[in-house]
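Review form for a predicted model. The reviewer records the input and the model, then writes brief findings.
Reviewer: anonymous (R2)
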Amino acid sequence: MSERIINVLSNANYESRKTTKKLIQKLKENNFTPVTKVHPNAELTITVGGDGAFIKAVNRSHFSETPIVGINTGHLGFFQEVDPNNVDQFIADYLDKNYHIEPTYLIGAEIFTKNRSFFLHAVNEIVLKAQNSKVIHMNIFINHTHLEKFSGDGMMVSTPSGSTGYNLSAGGSIVHPSIKALAMTPLAPISNQAYRSMTSTIVLPGEHIITLIPEKRYANSNLLLVDGQEFTYNQLKKINLRIADKHVNRLRIAEQNYWDIIKSKFL
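Model under review:
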């Protein structure tokens, strides 16, 4: 019988560490081999913590298609659907194959500088801003067609799953996770006689390419937020964003109604 390896990735707070210890013991009792680092032959990844722990686990696994499920020891827990008190039931459901796999869309970004290009992925959102909280000016294109010259704090592009995070807090629209789309939301847009910037979210098909071209003055003073992680680029020219070809496979135990989740988490 082949070894059944499960990745168990936890954050460092007390509740998470206590839950992880219990989880590892229960997995061993059910003939699994739990490991606390990403193993290439794992059949499942379990992340313990809040939504931040889930996103870190996805990054640590390099956006692998290995199914991932979260045990919520954080606050909101939008991605983390298993209660720490229900570990036994979760393992029983997993053994009985009482679950389904839900593909989760990612953003793919290609960043162009004067001499190089880089590829990044995000679970929730990517934001282009200026450093030191300055106003940024950029030209925005959709499928190579100029949309506007934007002025404001920044421009956010989020996935459907990310639409309920930073995007929602910024006044953006919620996008149902079944829709292969991106939400482009302006952050503190300036719209007056001097500057004309859109002031509301645009939801567009995931296959469309969003291009952000900052003015030259921001070539070395840009700030790119990728799921909250900060990057800066020298001689930044432009950024192309679209729904990525790869995706993350979330393991879902319960057939929860999406709008019940929205109501319980946000209203």
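Findings: The radius of gyration is 20 Å.
Further findings: The mean pLDDT is 92.
Recommendation: see findings above.
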